Fold:
Amino acid sequence: MTSKVITVTSGKGGVGKTTTVANLAAALAADGKKVVCIDGDIGLRNLDVIMGLENRIVYDVVDIVEGRCRTRQAMIRDKRLPDLFLIPAAQTRDKNAVSPSDMVRLCNELREEADWILIDSPAGIERGFRNSIAPADEILIVTNPEMSAVRDADRVIGLLEAEEKPAPSLIINRMNPDMVKRGDMLSVEDVYDLLRINVIGIVPEDENVIIASNRGTPLALDGKGRAGQAFRNIAHRLNGEEVPFMDLEARSIWERLTKLTRGR
Amino acid sequence: MSDTSLIQIKGIRDGLLVSLGEASWPELRSALQERIEQQPVFFQGANLSLDVGSRVLEVSDLISLRDFLSERGIRLWAVVGSSSVTENAAQLLGLATRLFKPTPQVETLPVAKGIEDETALWVNKTLRSGTRIEFAGHVIVFGDVNPGAEIVAGGSVIIWGRLRGFVHAGAQGNKEAMVCALDLSPTQLRLADEIALAPKRQGKSQPEVVRIINGQIQAETWNFD
Ligand SMILES: Nc1ncnc2c1ncn2[C@@H]1O[C@H](COP(=O)(O)OP(=O)(O)OP(=O)(O)O)[C@@H](O)[C@H]1O
Ligand SMILES: [Mg+2]
Structure:
């Protein structure tokens, strides 16, 4: 398999990028693929915490870039999945320590051995975001069904279009069907209607996400739980499989959405 | 050739302003790069504005310059020039296209009385949040104008799509200017000096045209017959 670099970004902070990277990585690695995650959020790292690998960090991405260690030495192996690795961000450096071309070089080196390289972008549209999208073959935009998050996603999509990056796909995270039904939350259709990009996943609001991230064990490995299932579905779609959207509540919406996205 | 004749640098309120002399873009670019490599400390951390005159620069030119600068800790802040291609490219990348002036000057757009300036800007895409288009003539958009996007036109604005962002038509006081869209629900709409806040849509959307009638902004169905 030729390897793929996938960047997860959002514009707005706190919408679930790190959660998405940790879960997709686990789901892909559980399929027997070799996966390397890179934490692109230099200065504010937390992918290591969500993956429960914080106490194993010796070297980080800045050490690789500045030549203090070999790439292999900074790759931390996951506790459960032998094919899953993390390259952590530096906690104490500012984001200018890494440049877009450093990221391209690092990913080209990783392509030799990994099937999937997942990059956790920081929020915003500044240097860390530019670093994260520079090597991307595919870009996933995470948003919440909430106007400010959707607007930021729209801004990021516009920037990607202007730079002629590959067309991004959308993950709508923290859907709450009851709130949509009461008219208190944007529906999947409302979000799609504005952004008009391929929807690759819809993840429900699920307290297990918070429990799992506090424990440092990815939810997607667990058989039960709707959010875990949603992340596994996204991993399958990344692999090119057609997986129907989960029937969270109103079936007609999902059917229409599948039609909309398939036509593109 | 000494590169001092090709590029001039001076300090301005926003940071550094680089003006370009007469030469091709690749030559000017490498002159600038050389200058930066020679004095990295001087440039480090600066916001750099570039006055490109009438030169036509594409998005790809600006991206590669921006990335070069960014790797040296310099932020490309503004690109000013007279070509609308360059200006659009800069706006698409979210760069400023005007320098700060101590006294606000309005004559950046030529005054259009009646609709004398019959040129139109053709925009063949959806304008997403954060995009701003300024044009002295008419603007035609084949796509949507999303919330957070802005169009300021000296003439009229025609949107073959949904208008949900901000539009100011007749921005230089032209009261003949109008705005039409297939679905009109702007965040805010201005015609000449009048401001209309969009009422909540009732029922199904339909093509509408908005103009000033008897001194008031009025919307009516956009009739094609
Ligand atoms: N589907 C979900 N259900 C419930 N809680 C969620 C869900 N997705 C994310 N969260 C919670 O939202 C918070 C933010 O998530 P996360 O850290 O993944 O966001 P982020 O986009 O990476 O944030 P930042 O921009 O700060 O990097 C976390 O506490 C996480 O547990
Ligand atoms: Mg994060």
Summary: The helical segments of chain B are 25-38, 40-43, 59-71, 84-92. The radius of gyration of chain B is 20 Å. Residues 129 and 148 of chain B are 4 Å apart (CA to CA).
